[in-house]
Structures are given as structure tokens and as C-alpha cells.
């Protein structure tokens, strides 16, 4: 039995019963029932109207509450109320702010709604008027010329505004109702106050006109209208007593009176006629309002199945119309998602290598780019496994981990070495993900890869950087560490130029770099004269150099080194008519290779602190002097933590496009009791040795979150492997992420000493958790040490902070420029933003800006400060 037949049967039965019963009741109690029914229905309609008005008032209050908490609106009102000078009006500032406010409050209502929002300053002067319906009013803001107010809008460009300031807001403290121009107006006004200071007023008016009232009437028993004269109507309800406004209920009683007179004679005939009529009307109604709309719904659903979406045509604004309206929104979102997915699929197909596999790993699909890159036709690879592309160098362990991950339902990402049909090597950055059926069971896998062969080849250009110092062309610190591991009986000499920073400060970094280059040549020359080529020479970092020897007698070696130091200190370096003499410190270690670097460093520090020329490491030196210094600083750090003198400083990171301070790096400092600010150089290593480092990290994180909780800028915090590998610290950070969700979305985690990462699984898990909360990841000092593109891909970085040693030499060393250019090109292809550190002057800034680097950081813009800009 169809829905139509069922409906007709129910209509006949129900109408028959209703009409017979109603006829009998009407026959006996018609007049009383009529009057009582009308009264109840009028009361019902009146409540609905008043509830609707109450809802309007609540909506107005909600809008006002939101406005009171809107920082942008508060900022603009504060500016206008406290700083606007009407006699000397500043158009550029206040017109911009008022126009911005006019556009900004658009979000508080929809176009076409009968709402008018007005803002006034604390002296009751009108600032803006925003109408969401042109029939009510124009939208404009008020500006001044020599104290005379004018209005400005897109429609009425400039006209004298006859504002009546004596009338002021026209409102009391509570809601105010009035009837004007055939509109029932509901007004709400509120004074905007912040920190006990008045910033102005907001006034929201809702205009209920005859058209809106007609819409309300569709849900009422009787149509209603407004009237100021109740004497003309029988059924009225007072709406506002003060102004004599009434709701008029249009009840036609003549129809009932006529029926009452004819009821006895025509009751049975009328019932039959009414049943037939009602049946006919109901049939038409059901057909037009139910059957036909459902058929339209069927057509819309079929159009989606055929991938030709057609919205449901809405004829009536009834319940079914509302359902279809909601359905259209759902279908529209679904179709948008489907279209976005198709567009995304096309984009992925065009720019990536795409391959699908069944549950057994057999290839079921490969896109055109995959076939072109692999040099196989689609027919040659369908049904095969990925082994057809596997390069012999790829270890079995790589594929075992890959399959273990995706079979568990996890995503796998990594770099794979493949080979084409003609045995060419292809490097891909690949992501494999399971494909699920409707029951959430894995039915296959999809692999989306990016060809990074060119980038991997360019990585060779950075290998030089891994082992050589670009300024002096000598081996660097990383090469020294590697050589120490392969030397059985090492002798390590560290030579430092004392107070070299004074040369940089007085003559500039460029001049200082030339001095370092000249000194390295003198140093090498002296060692060649003394030891031939039986040594290795390194620039250890900054103004420190290292010489590695092996299997030499200590008593014979020491006099030779002293003689070399004497020759070097007597050497005068002449540059640009300036004569430079250098004072040196030297530390020597004869310890085993695992302790050579550490002990040579201790010897050098003891040498510098004791103002000696040369110190050879011994256990006595280490225990009596180095420990004494450590104990001193350990005590200072402990006391600074207890007295809350560990504070964050902030150095801005500038957007190179608009020179705005969009980000800040957080840097730890200790402020001593006398106000002196201490750099981490003096206390960070000691803090790590005395297990106070994690406390410092927690303090910096706590204070940074507090500083930036209401700031609309990103901020970055440095984390080391010691931080990430500590479970207590990870739990502390996760708690911060969960309890400060908005602030966390502006946090950038800078990974420092990233070359020391051993457990990539742990780091990847931490990065995934942080990113899921909205954090971003930056790699610090990229381009130095063991920095390479492989771990950059693994760490899923959002930002690369290019090492300062590259940036400061970018205009003087071609190698630095090439390395930076390579990093920038790589970052652009990977969608990673770049930040240049050590921007010390305008020349460096211009160069890195021309290279397309996104952000800058350095003393050219600002040193680290205790407060934000």
C-alpha cells in the first residue's frame, strides 16, 4: 500500500470522526466553546509573539556580550574615546579604524536582517552606524572637519550629518520599545567598560515591521498586526502600555455565527460535504506538499549518485521545506568535500607519484607520472610488487618496518632509494597509508611519493660543509670529532684568540673574519715548519683552532708549542692600514680519545681564567679549579631558581615582506640581585651537569605561555634532546598543550643540537603529538655541523633557521652564498619557511631578502629584550 493511499484512508477516518464529534459539541456548546477557544488561541498567539520578542532581546544581549569581550572592538573604542580630537581630526588613523570597525562587526549578523548596530564614544557622540538591511538605514561612520561631523558611506560619499547630540543615545538603562514608521523597534544599549574605564556605548535595534510580523503570523492561529487605537478592534492585547501599542488579532466570527444558525438543519449534509472537500484538499495538499517534494528528494539523491549534483527545489517554507533546506546544506557540504577530494586527487596525481596495492602488496594502480618516472608501462607493473623498483642498496630492514607499520594501520613515511627500468637511481620521499573498506578493515594500501632525486644529489654540495670551515677552508669541529674517534693516541691542542670579540665590536664582523683567515694561515705555516705535515688542523669554532697530533713525547712537544705561540703573538697582522697583534691561550690534552676534546677544553678554560699562556690538562687541574667554578655557578643557578630570577628574554623575528615583528624567540636569562643580566653561556652547561637544566626549561615554558596567552603572535622555545628524551618534561609539555590550547597553536618548538638525535622514533612521536595540538617545528642552526636534508624530512619541519655562520659570511664567501641558496631552494620545494639568523647589518638583510628568505632575526632589528615590542 502506497503512502498516498494510506494517507487518504487516514484522512477519511479521522475527518469523519472529527466532524461528527465537533458537530455534536458545537450543537450544544458552540458559543461558549467559541469564546473560550478564541481567548485561549489569542493568549497562545500573544505568548508566541512576546516570546519571539524576548528571543530578539536575548539575541541582542548575546551580541552585546560578545562585543564586550572582543579585544579588537575594545581597542578601537579606546582609541576613539580617548584620543580622537574633533577639532584636529586625523583622517588616516580614525577613518581607517572606524571603517575597520564597520567591516568587522559584519560578523555579528547577516545581511538582510532587520538589525541596526550603533557605536558611541564615551561622550555619547555617534561613531558608526551599521545597518544589515538597507530599508532601515544606511551604514556609515562619522568623521570631523574642524569639529563639524560628517558621515561617510559607500553610497553617500560625503555629506553634512545633522546629528542631534542633545538627543544622545535615546535609551534608558533597560530595554526600550517604540513604534515608529510602522515598525516595532526593540532597542538594547550597554556601556562598554574595561579596567573600570568607560570606552563608549553600543546600541542594537531590531525593527519588527509588517513583513516580519506576517512571517510570525504563519505560525499563529490568527493573523496579527500593530495598532495604536484599540477602539476599532474587538480582539486586542496591550503590547507596550506606555505608548499605547496593541496587538490586533484578526478573528472572523461571522463565519461561526452563520454556521451556528444553519447547523441544525444542515449538520449531516455539511459533514458529508466537508469530508469530501477536506478529502479533496488533503489529497491536493499531500500530493503537492509531501509526495512531490519526496519525489524531488529522490531526484536529488539520484543526481548525486550520477555525480551531477542538483539541489532539491524548495517550494514551501514549511517543515518539509526546512528539512530539504537542511538536506541541501548537507548535500552541498558533501558535494564540496567530494569536489575538494577530486581536486586534491587531481593535484596529487599531477605532481606526485601515486601507486595503489592490494592487501598482498600487488600493484593495482599507478598514475601516469609514476610510469613516466619509473620508465615502466602500466601493463608492465600492474600485478607486480614494489620489488620491481627496489634498489639493491635498500636494506630488508627498511621494508620490514614499512610493512609492519602499514599492516598495523599506521602511516609510514620515509625516503626510499629506487631504480627505474633502465637502472637509473630515483630517490623518493614516500608516504604509505592503509585504505579501509566500509567495515574499517584494510583492503589495500596507497603510496604517494615525491621525486627528490635532484635534492638528494644537491645534498652532496653540503657534505663539504659537514667537514670544512667555509671561512678558513680548514677542517671543522665535526671532522675533529670524527678523527678523534679514529685516533688511538691523540694529542689535542686548542688555541683561542683572547678578547677577539673586541675586534668584531670595534672593526666589524667582516674585518674580524679577515683577521681569522690570516691568523689560520700563520698558524698552519708555523706548525708545518715545526711538524711538517704530521698534524691535522681545524677551526674548532669562532676564534678557536685545534691541532691534532699523535704519538709524540710530551716533554719534547711542549717547548715547541710554546715557541709557536711566541712567534704568533709577535706577529703583526696588517689589514687596511691597521696593525693587529693577538694574544693567545692554549690548552693541551694527552688523554684518551673519548676524553680528549673535553679535557683539552677544560685546560683551555683554566688557561684563560688564569691568564696563562699554556695549560696541559691534568686531573689536578680538573678537580681543583674546574670543579671550583662549577660549584660556584651551580650555587648561583640554584639560588636564581629559588628566587625566581630565571626570566625569558624575547628577540623578534621579522617578516621580510612587510618588516612586521610577527614572531619572537624566547631566550633564557638569569638576572642577578644587582640587576645584571647573565647569558646562558655562563650557566647552561653547569645547569645540565647539576640536573637543574630541566627546571630552567620548565620556568621558561611557564613564563612564555603566560606572556603570550593573549598575544596574537607566534613564539618559539628551544628544546634539546635532553628535554625531549625526559618523560617528565614531555608530560609537562603535553599538559601545557592541553590546558592552553589557544596559546599552543602559536608555539614554535625549535629543535637545537638536532644532529645529536639518536632515537628518531621518540622524537617523531613527540613531534606528532605537538603538531596534533597545533604546534609548529623549527630546526635551529641548519647548515652547520651534521645538518642534512635527510633528518629535515624526518623531523617534518615547518621552519628552517639557517645557521648564523653562513648568514654573516654570505656577502664575503661564495661558498656560504651557495649553501644558503641550496637550503632556500630545498625549503621552497618542500613548503618549509626559512629564517635567517645573525642579521647584523643592512647589506646582509638585502642579500637574504633577495634570496627569498621569509624571516630575519638579528641585532640589525633588535637585541633580545625583557619585554615585547
Keywords:
transmembrane, Beta-Lactamase, transmembrane helix, elongated, membrane, 869 residues, single chain, eight-stranded mixed barrel, 4 domains, EAL domain-containing protein, eight-stranded antiparallel sheet, Alpha-Beta Plaits, alpha+beta
What does it look like?
This protein is α+β, with helices and mostly antiparallel strands. The chain folds into four domains: 44-249, no CATH class; 352-451, PAS domain (Beta-Lactamase, 2-Layer Sandwich); 460-617, Alpha-Beta Plaits (2-Layer Sandwich); 633-856, TIM Barrel. The chain has 26 helices and 32 strands. The protein has an eight-stranded antiparallel β-sheet with strand order 5-4-3-2-1-8-7-6. The protein has an eight-stranded mixed barrel with strand order 24-25-27-28-29-30-31-32, surrounded by five helices. Helix 1 crosses helix 5 (254-305).
Helix segment tally:
26
- Enter the CATH topology name of the largest domain: TIM Barrel
Indicate the radius of gyration in whole angstroms: 40 Å
**End-to-end distance:** 76 Å
Please give the number of β-strands: 32
Main pleated sheet: 8 strands, antiparallel
Into which percent range does the helicity of residues fall?
40-55%
Domain PAC: 410-464
Domain EAL: 630-869
Domain GGDEF: 488-619
Domain PAS: 340-409
